[in-house]
Structures are given as structure tokens and as C-alpha cells.
């Protein structure tokens, strides 16, 4: 799997418009599996990325919201409801997308805030699909 993860990270950096960084987080272990970036970042920040990703997708309040949505819609599956999350900071846009095959694995793409959001989603989804859900 490590070769596949490394390949998708490199493809995301190469093919997503204006991509500054990409990475893959394993939420089951709380680890950033690999990343590729144009900049150097303190290791503390990179370590926190995995925890922040876990909170975004599976934090206590998020899980409660998912459970309410499932109950109201009559969905009994254990599948997570939230699959993609877009976060804008002061200068950057961060896109988090769950793996199609393993919901505990999330791809992260970071671009300048000026990125075309439609192109960001389209290119990221295309790369993930080309890598067969990595």
C-alpha cells in the first residue's frame, strides 16, 4: 500500500491546479502516512494534521451529526456520512477526501485560497479515481 499512497500523493501534487501540498492520513493509527509539499513545515504541524483530520471526520460532535442524519433518513449502514470536507483558512484552501476502499484513509490537498474550487474538486476526484480509490 505504501507505493500506492506515495503515487497518489505525487499525482495530486502534479495534477491538482496550484497544489502546494498533498498527503494521506490514516485515521485508524493517527498517522500522516506520507506527504509532498513545496514548503518546509515544522514536524509538529505535520503531526497535528492527522489529529485534525480525525477530528474533522470522526470527532464526537461530527459522529453525533452523522448518526442523526442516518436515523432521520432511515440509513442503517456503518458507512460514514461525510466523505469530503473543504476548509478555507486565511490564505489556503484544504480539501480532505475519504478513500473509497478504506474510510479510515483520507487524502489531503492544500492550495492557495485563490484556487478554482470546482477545478480543485474535479482534479482531486479524477486523480483518486485513476488510482482506483487508492
What labels would you give this structure?
Beta-Lactamase; alpha+beta; five-stranded antiparallel β-sheet; 4 helices; 43% helix; 5 strands; 25% strand; 134 residues
Task: Give a short summary of the structure.
The protein is built from four helices and five strands; from the N terminus they run αββααβββα. It has helices at residues 2-15, 43-58, 60-73, 117-130; strands at residues 21-26, 31-37, 84-88, 92-98, 105-112. The protein is globular.
Task: Give me the secondary-structure topology.
Elements: H1 2-15, E1 21-26, E2 31-37, H2 43-58, H3 60-73, E3 84-88, E4 92-98, E5 105-112, H4 117-130
Helix pairs in contact: 1-4, 2-3
What does it look like?
This is Roadblock/LAMTOR2 domain-containing protein. This protein is an alpha+beta fold and 134 residues long. It has four helices and five strands. It has a single domain, classed as Dynein light chain 2a, cytoplasmic (Beta-Lactamase), CATH 3.30.450. A hairpin with a 3-residue loop joins strand 3 and strand 4. Helix 1 runs antiparallel to helix 4 and helix 2 packs parallel to helix 3. The model has no long low-confidence stretch (mean pLDDT 91).
* Major sheet: arrangement of strands: 2-1-5-4-3
CATH level 4 superfamily? Dynein light chain 2a, cytoplasmic
Can you give the helix content as a percent range?
A: 40-55%
Shape, per Cα inertia axes? globular
**Stretches where pLDDT falls below 50 for ≥5 residues?**
none
| Overall residue-averaged pLDDT value | 91
Quickly count the domains.
1
How many helices in DSSP terms? 4
Annotation, overall tally of beta strands: 5
CATH architecture: 2-Layer Sandwich
Order of SSEs: HEEHHEEEH
CATH class: Alpha Beta
For the largest beta-sheet, the strand count, sense and barrel status come to: 5 strands, antiparallel
Rg (CA only): 15 Å
The fraction of residues in strands falls at 15-25%
Our measurement of the CA-to-CA distance between the termini, rounded to an integer number of angstroms, reads 8 Å
CATH topology: Beta-Lactamase
Structural class: alpha+beta
Protein name: Roadblock/LAMTOR2 domain-containing protein
Amino acid at each position: 500500500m505504501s507505493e500506492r499512497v506515495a503515487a497518489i500523493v505525487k499525482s495530486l501534487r502534479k495534477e491538482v491546479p496550484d497544489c502546494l501540498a498533498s498527503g494521506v492520513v490514516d485515521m485508524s493509527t493517527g498517522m500522516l502516512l506520507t506527504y509532498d509539499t513545496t514548503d518546509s513545515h515544522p514536524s509538529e504541524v505535520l503531526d497535528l494534521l492527522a489529529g485534525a483530520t480525525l477530528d474533522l471526520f470522526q470527532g464526537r460532535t461530527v459522529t453525533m451529526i452523522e448518526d442523526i442524519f442516518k436515523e432521520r433518513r432511515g440509513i442503517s449502514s456503518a458507512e460514514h456520512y461525510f466523505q469530503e470536507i473543504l476548509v478555507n483558512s486565511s490564505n489556503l484552501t484544504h480539501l480532505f477526501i475519504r478513500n473509497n476502499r478504506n474510510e479510515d484513509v483520507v487524502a489531503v490537498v492544500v492550495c492557495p485560497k485563490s484556487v478554482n474550487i470546482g477545478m480543485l474538486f474535479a482534479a482531486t476526484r479524477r486523480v483518486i479515481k485513476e488510482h482506483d480509490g487508492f
